[in-house]
Design goal:
The chain is an alpha+beta fold. It is 17% helix and 27% strand. It binds iron/sulfur cluster (2 copies).
Length: 60
């Protein structure tokens, strides 16, 4: 599994960057971007903590 950002919903708050233990996200142009999808360990912290519900998972 790897995370996917809905950029129409993301407000660029940086919470996903802060809570991800694997460094999967970076803020670029005021939106979160998945920069290291292969590092995801599937802990779901990002999904649980995103205030906008902008993160979902897709199968690799
Ligand atoms: S936590 Fe959600 S709203 Fe905040 S930057 Fe990440 S994806 Fe965007
Ligand atoms: S599930 Fe966990 S490891 Fe994967 S992107 Fe979200 S916070 Fe990072």
């Amino acid at each position: 599994m790897q995370p996917k950002i809905n950029k129409k919903i993301c407000i660029g708050c940086g919470t996903c960057v802060a809570v991800c233990p694997a460094g999967v996200f970076e803020i670029r142009n005021d939106k979160s971007e998945v920069v290291n999808p292969s590092l995801c360990i599937g802990c779901k912290s990002c999904i649980l903590n995103c205030p906008e519900g902008a993160i979902s998972f897709k199968k690799k």
